[in-house]
Design brief:
heterodimer, A: 319 residues, mainly alpha, 13 helices, globular, B: 505 residues, alpha+beta, 7-stranded mixed β-sheet
Chain lengths: 319, 505
């Protein structure tokens, strides 16, 4: 409990650091909201016109004033207004987040459902042809970029079978679960495939490690069945690296899967952040990055707590 | 492994079944389902310059006049117009049937308020630069508007055909709600806009242009053009805008789809910076022009989709490119010019380009790099994110730049920004030339079409010879459609206005 409180206490500090980083980084990049809106036509503006636009976008003040206003707003729960959407930043983010969360969970399920059994199977059949087969597929899965797999799936379905889930208009889960699932299953497979491959490889090597440990040998010599040795004795320990990998990957996915969202035209966080960066929607970029960082920290915390559950020997936060 | 594959396959089949179901419930006879990869960025017709924004706003707002597919001025809100003899007074008669989507009639007061808004510096209208000759606006009655100009300005009429000069309600100007609400007098009303995701438009029953061909248009933003093509194959999308020639050339391979392409006014160009050494030397610039095989750039970077062009891309005014300086590649001449300029051993320079904008930018830079290597010019290619590129471009901070620059239906409006001494983008072109400047001023004041043509032909010839930039080619604007969509007219300006009369059969 103590540990949990101490971890939570560091959150504001990390977020403060992140806020400064993102604030400065987005402003270091040449170009601003004005060139983002007008492109090369921005050159036709007179200085007075430019000033008027800068005031509109809120970029007429010095950096520290802008930062101070932004942070002050956040402390009052106000993340600012997105100039692209003309709405509060937090509203826009929270509208996009359910899709991103759902996609992350779905691809996580696919990855674990495929990757774990495959990894365990490979480990228990180590150096046999079937192990080699699993490893080759995993290697292919890990090295196939998601845009290749995504476009391949779309092309095969539309050109080969003349079908494709409805694109462009996304149905939220609670409005139309069936349609929602039809729109998310392909992106989830695209993401889950590479993820499953990593899980397979990590699970396999962790399992191999554990299987050669003393306590597993002891269990075997005491006459435990092969099944019980694997599932009861070895698996919980082999899961620790898988949880680490899964946690990191899940954290990433909560930041949005830009490429997959682009290909399947999903209105998730990733595309939103990308568009916001391209359109120099500062408030939205800043708010979204903070939000993503916060999620990442929560996931990390959950991963640490999962270690304790999996291995009672681990005691968090104690020297 | 077998297990894994079958799992994947069953997942796909499942999704496919659902997909079919989802599509069939969506189809509606009078709704045009449209897609594009880049969404509009805002709703203020006077401020927006992004291609998608203009295309969207043209369906909602109307200017006084329009240009048709052959770039002739045709009526929009104004039914007729006339220049006074001295070219300093321009009178419009408005269509008495024209109505805004809130039911109010479009009057001369709205026209006056719209142009005053554009001219007000606080509005930050980029098109303001085209209307600086407006000295005052008179409204003798509700249906007549008279523009008094400070100098003869023929191109102003073409500039008025742009949606950046759209007529907005005077009441909305006063309320300051332009850009948050879209109230135009055009064929469609905007019902919903979810940025970077979707637009829903419905027919404006009161449109002075008569009934529209479809009841509504739904525009989806599908960022990947290969996915747009896939969605068209499965009939989810009826009509789409395409940018990438690689995707566009695949459309005709689909039996149910039709590709519309039309040469556009925008041009692909290699901009030299004549304020930087050694591009300060005329002979060096000319050598670069002679060393570049424009057709090869077009063929390699853009699959031959387009045609080689000189500075003027307007069909009625353009000179045959083969008559322009060094449009036939001549490496020997190029080497000789380099030697005469004292650069027999060549030089090194950096060329900048924007990633994906246009999609052919990187390929163009690479072809040019290899062609210029033959005369000893070593090019370093620097690709940048669009905004970073625009920033460098506007500051004139480059040796060379591959660019896709927008065209206009009038050469003065298109080029005064670069090639007149007072041009707003003179700093980008970095090249001052008395001949170009005086030809521009002459062309601006000349009302006789034949004389105008001669003036701009001379302008074009001189510009190509001075080679501050190396004009390469114009590409096509692409739209793809299902074959049961009828009535779309592609135009060199890229406008989608004819969607107002499109029908689904």
């Amino acid at each position: 409990m103590n540990y949990l409180l101490r971890r939570l206490a560091t959150f504001p500090l990390v977020l403060l650091g992140v806020s400064i980083l993102v604030f400065v980084a987005i402003r270091m990049v040449p170009g601003d909201s004005i060139t983002a809106m007008l492109g090369t036509e921005a050159g036709l503006l007179t200085p007075a016109q430019r000033d008027a636009l800068a005031a509109y976008f809120g970029i007429d003040q010095p950096w520290f004033v802008q930062y101070w206003r932004w942070i002050g707003g956040i402390l009052h729960g106000n993340f600012g207004i997105s100039v692209t959407y003309g709405r509060p930043v937090l509203d826009v983010i929270l509208e996009r987040f359910p899709l991103t969360l759902e996609l992350a969970i779905l691809s996580m399920i696919i990855a674990l459902a495929v990757g774990l059994p495959a990894g365990i199977y490979a480990a228990t059949h180590s150096e046999k042809p079937s192990d080699l087969g699993v490893r080759i597929v995993a290697m292919i899965g890990q090295s196939t970029p998601s845009f290749v797999l995504g476009l391949l799936i779309i092309y095969t379905l539309s050109a080969g079978f003349g079908v494709l889930p409805a694109m462009g208009e996304f149905a939220p889960l609670w409005q139309d679960p069936l349609r929602n699932l039809s729109q998310l299953i392909l992106p989830a497979i695209t993401l889950g495939f590479a993820f499953a491959a990593s899980v397979t490889r990590i699970a396999r090597s962790a399992m191999l490690d554990v299987l050669s440990d003393d306590y597993v040998r002891t269990a075997r010599s005491k006459g435990a069945s092969a099944r019980s040795v694997i599932w009861r004795h070895a698996l919980p320990n082999a899961l620790i690296p898988v949880v680490t990998l899964g946690g990191i990957e899940f954290g990433y996915l909560l930041g949005g899967a830009v490429i997959v969202e682009q290909i399947y035209a999903l209105p998730g966080l990733g595309r939103m952040v990308l568009d916001a960066i391209l359109q120099r929607d500062y408030a939205l970029v800043q708010g979204a990055v903070l939000f993503i960082a916060f999620n990442f920290m929560i996931v990390n915390l959950l991963v640490d707590l999962a270690y304790v559950a999996l291995d009672p020997r681990i005691r968090l936060g104690e020297q | 492994m077998v297990h894994l594959t079958s799992r994947l396959l069953s997942g796909i089949t499942f999704a496919a079944m659902l997909g079919v179901e989802a599509v069939s419930t969506q189809a509606s006879a009078a709704t045009l389902h449209m897609a594009w990869s880049q969404d509009a960025t805002g709703l203020d017709p006077h401020k927006q310059t992004a291609f998608s924004s203009l295309r969207l706003l043209e369906l909602i707002y109307e200017p006084l006049v329009r240009v048709d597919a052959s770039l002739q001025i045709v009526p929009a809100i104004a039914t007729s117009w006339e220049f006074s003899k001295d070219g300093k007074e321009l009178t419009f008669k408005l269509d008495p049937k024209a109505k805004f989507q809130d039911g109010a009639a479009v009057t001369s007061a709205d026209v006056k308020a719209s142009f005053e808004r554009i001219l007000d510096e606080k509005t930050s209208a980029a098109a303001r630069a085209n209307f600086l000759s407006i000295a005052s606006i008179d409204t003798p009655d509700a249906g007549t508007v008279v523009f008094h100009l400070s100098q003869p300005d023929v191109p102003i009429l073409t500039a008025m055909s742009d949606v950046n000069a759209a007529i907005v309600p005077a009441a909305e100007v006063k309320a300051g709600s332009i850009g948050t609400k879209a109230v135009g007098s055009g064929p469609f009303k905007l019902d919903k806009w979810d940025p970077n995701a979707k637009e829903v438009l419905s027919a404006n029953k009161d449109w002075a242009g008569g009934p529209t061909g479809v009841d509504s248009i739904e525009i989806s933003v599908l960022p990947d053009e290969a996915a747009i093509l896939a969605a068209m194959r499965t009939k989810q999308i009826d009509f789409a805008l395409l940018n990438d020639p690689l995707v566009a050339t695949l459309v005709p391979k689909e039996a149910s789809l039709q590709l519309n392409r039309v040469p556009v006014l925008a041009y692909h160009v290699l901009q030299l910076n004549p304020s930087r050494k050694p591009m300060t030397e005329l002979k060096v610039r000319q050598a670069i022009s002679c060393a570049i095989d424009r057709q090869d750039v077009l063929d390699t970077a853009s699959l031959g989709e387009g045609k080689v062009t000189g500075p003027l891309t307007i069909p009625a005014l353009a000179t045959d490119p083969s008559e322009l300086f060094c449009y036939k590649r001549d490496v020997e001449k190029a080497k000789k010019l380099m030697a005469e300029a004292g650069f027999a051993d060549g030089f090194s320079a950096t060329v900048i380009g924007a990633t994906g904008e246009p999609p052919t930018a990187a390929a163009e830079a690479q072809v040019i790099q290899s062609q210029l290597a033959e005369i000893g010019v070593k090019l370093d290619i620097k690709m940048m994110e669009l905004n970073v590129y625009v920033d460098a471009w506007l500051k004139g901070n480059f040796d060379m730049a591959v660019a896709l620059n927008g065209g206009r239906a009038d050469p003065y409006t298109m080029y005064n920004r670069y090639w007149t001494k007072a041009g707003n983008l003179q700093k980008v072109a970095n090249y001052i030339d008395d001949t170009l400047d005086s030809l521009m001023q002459k062309g601006r004041a000349e009302t006789d079409p034949a004389k105008r043509k001669a003036i701009f032909a001379e302008f074009e010839k001189h510009l190509a010879e001075m080679s501050p930039w190396i004009w390469l080619y114009t590409s096509y604007s692409y739209t793809a459609q299902q074959k049961n969509i009828a009535g779309f007219v592609p135009t060199p300006t890229g406008t989608l206005f004819s969607l107002s009369k499109v029908t689904i059969q």
